[in-house]
Amino acid sequence: MKKNDLDILKNADDDIIEELVPFTNDNEETKKRVFEMSEKKYNSKMEKAGRSTGNSNDTMTFGVEKYSRPKWYKPLCTAAAIVLLLGGAGTVAFMNNNFSAGRGQSTQVEERVVSEAPTEAVTEEATEAATEVSAMLSEDEMKALFEEYSAVYDGWVQVNFYENFAPDGEAINFWVYGETYADINSDYYNRIGAKIEGDAVYYPITYTKLNKEHYGSISELKEYLGQYMTPDCEIMTYIDKIEDLSDFNDGDTIRNSPDETIPDVIEYNGELYAEKRELSFYDDSNNPPEVISNRSYEVSENSFEWERIQKRTIDAHTYIDAENYTFRKCDDGRWRISKGRFFGSEYDDTIDYTNRKGSLLNEKNGNAVDYFMTKDTTAAEDIENTTTV
Amino acid sequence: MTGAEYSLLLQKSTREAHEMLFNEYYSYVCAIAFNRLRSYSNEDIEECISDIFAEVFFSFSVEYTKGDMKGYIGTIAKRRCIDRFRKLSKDNGTVFSVDDENVPEISSGENIEEESEKSELRRILIECIKALGEPDSTIIIQKFYYKKTSHQIADILSMKPSGVRMRCKRAADKLKEALAKRGIKEDAI
User: Fold this and answer.
1) What is the pLDDT of residues A112-131, one digit of tens each?
2) Chain A residues 157-186 with a CB less than 8 Å from chain B
3) Which end is more exposed in chain B, N or C (fewer Cβ atoms within 10 Å of the end residue's Cβ)?
4) Chain A interface, mutation test: which of B43, B51, B125, B160, most A Cβ atoms within 10 Å?
């Protein structure tokens, strides 16, 4: 693209315009403003024509905003909310009792087989088989791990959500480089309180102190999440690279170039701060999703994948969302998540979601795999890129 | 939405009917208006979109538009865009009188061969953008076609501006690769 634009598409034929429609949208504020302008002009036309607008009573009731978030947003939030709700104490109890008991029984089986084996060759074979039986987790045990651990994983993914901050939480304000000044956006810049210096636009950014259990400092967070995730899990990699911005003062500029990315979470004077976002979960209590697959894949002695696929119908559209975690048994004998992947799309009735040979997430690749991963992978890459600049 | 459905909604509440129709066809009208008036400011384009909807609301008659309203709305949109384009061109002094002595020497500006080539390029470009998958396709269109800022795109897609910037860079690189594979050099676009 010569000038970083797609001018070639202007004055295109109708079929090209049709192709552009799915990628055309505006924020709610702009749409509301344009709608109000349309209504005003319509009323004016009606008055000129001497016709009643029929709007006199409606004006009082107007004000409900219809949000059109991307279609994957609701399923993602729903999945995340359910994961949060399901994880918990029952699983811990299950792990403490049944899991340890199960291991005890397996050991007994192994000892018995070895002692009864008549020859060396057969003993080796029998021992291997017994070890495999004893070391493999049952489906229920893997499911319990998934429910407990995925809740912790999602707790981090949703770190910026509003409920993780005290209402009057301590905040610090910085400036970050936004982009090159473009005159057509001057209203927008004023509205968000951007400052313009030369041809550069700087955006304000506010980090608020986190008010979430185990999220007090980097070391506390690392110790907590380290119980559930392997050191090479991308979340742990991200945490290793959280920046300490204690050297900056309130009102300082922390990013001066478009090549520098903006962190989600920072450390400031030994405490964790994050950008607060007013996101809320989609309430599907009246329209619960249908779990169409919830099972393990690629199970071995030291690792397994757990994938849950849910189907839901919203506004006459049916979607599926899948979450897939890879678990690995670490040297200390504890299972941890080494990778979390998510996928969402419209329901495709040509795909068999329930009786799969392999996991759905392994079948998908490229963009499809990280369709839902924008928040997390980008954050990790943001930090990684920042440190290499 | 069909004309019959819209008519029923109008009987219940004019404003709610307008709002539903607006929400359903905003992207469509926006795509037409932006395509035709791309050289002008966002404010001019928004003004035109509001003119289009005002006229759709005003001139609707179920007798003529019982079926899908898309054709009806598209026709009004294109006409209003032409009107707006003429008005803006006139305001900018780019319109001249046919009585001018230079007029006979001015060509129509239409090059059929070039237009045909452009048309094919557009089709391939759209195919390659669609192949990027979401949200990358929307980010590329919003950034490079609608000239939205990262913050504005982030607002639309419920993403972080930094996330938009990162994805945009990667998507632009992928797009260049995809176009190159189709034999289209970057500077042809």
Assistant:
1) 333 344 444 444 444 444 44
2) 178-179, 182, 184-185
3) N
4) B160
A and B: number of Cβ contacts within 8 A: 216
Strand A317-329 and strand A335-346: the pairing is antiparallel
Nearest of A26, A27, A9 to residue A18 by alpha carbon: A9
347-386 in chain A: CB under 8 A from chain B: 366-368, 371, 374-375, 378-379, 381-382, 385
Place of tokens 């919003």: B142
Q: Where are the alpha helices (DSSP H) in A117-168?
A: 120-135, 139-157
The dihedral sign for the CA sequence A38, A42, A43, A44: positive
Residue environment code for A335-360, b if the CB has 16+ CB neighbours within 10 A, otherwise e: bbbbbbbbbbbeeeeeeebeebeebb
A344 and chain B: CB distance < 8 Å anywhere?
A: no
User: Residue A385's pLDDT band (boundaries 50, 70, 90)?
Assistant: very low
Q: Count the residues in chain A.
A: 389
Taking only the tens place, the pLDDT of each residue in B160-181 is: 887 788 788 888 888 888 888 7
